[in-house]
Amino acid sequence: MNQVVSENIELRNRLQSDFDHSLSHSGISGERVAKRLAELGQIGLTEAGGVNRISFSKEERAAKELVKKWMQEIGLSVREDGAGNVFGRLEGTKELPVVMSGSHVDSVPTGGHFDGPLGVIAALEVAEAWKDTNYQPKKPLEVVVFTDEEGARFNGGLTGSRAMTGEMDIDKQKSLLDIYGDPFEEVIQKDGLTLEGFIEAKRDLSEIAAYVEVHIEQGKRLEKEGLPVGIVTGIAGPSWLNMTFKGEAGHAGNTPMNDRRDPLVAASEFVSKVKDLPKTVSDSAVATVGKLEVFPNGVNVIPGEVRLTVDIRDIHSETRDTLAQLVKDLANSTSDKYEVEVEMKETLHVAPVAVPPDMQQKAARAVTETIGTKAYYLPSGAGHDAMAVGRHVPMAMLFTQSKAGISHNPKEWSTLNDCVQTIHVLNHFLKQLCED
Length: 436
Known about the structure:
2 domains, Alpha-Beta Plaits, 9-stranded mixed beta sheet, 15 strands, globular, Aminopeptidase
């Protein structure tokens, strides 16, 4: 598959249309970044102008092979582990633990061109800049492409990074069926992988000094601040609460309003009040009801049951758990008010991961000394490979401004100017980590 050379010309032209060419310096080339984004953007290109590169597909494989080709052309030593994670290594002057940077190339079925690929191309661009300027770091640098970050195929995610860090429950993974009903083991075999390979992908984490990931923000904070890049303070851990409000179904015409036990009325009031709870515990906390089912769902029937899920997140475990309790308390008080029952069950509980203060400080120094803007800090509400890696080694993330906060959508967009400025910050940041 190394023969993939075509590119999304429309994407490349749009990226370069308003590019400030003075940003191409110190070995970093905006034109090369645009070309690589465009070449990856041709793989899995959809009619809507986005990409469909779900995990373990021929499209994800083709994208990995293209990145391998770029790594080899630069002169990096390239290897792929048993989980399909790809590593390109630039040796250091000392035999020390590596500094790692990268992201993923898989997408959701309706994905855009920046979520994942920007982080891979940014790390690769730094490695090529170091080669071009004859800079050899003290610590080795590894550019990484993680397998199946998005989780669109098996409703999971962070598969490659979890395998590398030894977090994977292989028996649970083996039991998974994909969106087409195919078992995990059968799917990965078609991609040339095995269950044994996923087990063997576990790495000695003492070999990794730090991990830095560039990613689009997937929000509007940087755009509102007019800044190209921000420093992530932590990655939120989700808690999912499944709730069932149970009342009494009845005829819409024959049941008086004062003689009803309507769970939809209770659930509606609950949903309307959930939005006010996060701000009482933290400025980074959020709570969302994105799924609601009504039974029996008839036009002329008072509902008997309503099921919904509350997605609760924060970058701090204490405030996230406090918010979860407030949500439960609200559900109980609302059900009492309307004389209905409520059942609750937590179906997901993932610990948040904070970015160490010293890593934030180094990132801030890289911002101010490289592009001269203020260091702006913001949380990540979405999960990333940095979450799995950051539970074991020092981790940091840089967010690139994302227009209108659009993500997982063909309209996803970050300007080439913002991308390249982020890469300059990454360059400075990785040099600090490699020389420490």
